[in-house]
Amino acid sequence: MKENLIHYRTCVCNINYHMVWSVKYRRKILSAEVEAYLQKLVQEIAEDKGFTVHLFECGEGDHVHCFVSAPPKLSITAIMKYLKGISGRKLFERFPEIRNQLWKGELWNHSYYVEMVGSVSEENIRRYIEHQSKAY
């Protein structure tokens, strides 16, 4: 576990997210060329905004999976806003033909899935807290 810790000025943490979001109307527009550009773009966005993308994959041409580590100052909503907003705009600029397969000029579905991924299970945390010494 200690090798996963990230040291900042005022804290030490290990905050990881598994995030999934999909193309509007589940259109299968994420071809190999679009996926390669999107992967590069997502890495650039992460570097610019201060988080790390460890894994990135497009699934079935209509959705994206990311495994991300972030500092506590970045909320998951901010991370998703950066990833979906910036990537959507830049993908439309680079591949204007995909706009024809979507309505209203939106690339990504408004919703997303996120799960926090930790190195310690809830059960272990509960056991640790319950067995703390009460002596002061």
From TrEMBL:
Q: Which domain of life is it from?
A: Bacteria
Name the Gene3D superfamilies on file: Transposase IS200-like
Q: Which Pfam families match?
A: Y1_Tnp
Checking InterPro entries in the record gives:
Transposase_17, Transposase_17_sf
Single Gene Ontology MF annotation: transposase activity
Under the heading NCBIfam families, the entry gives: transpos_IS200 (NF033573)
What's the name of the protein? IS200/IS605 family transposase
**Gene encoding this polypeptide?**
tnpA
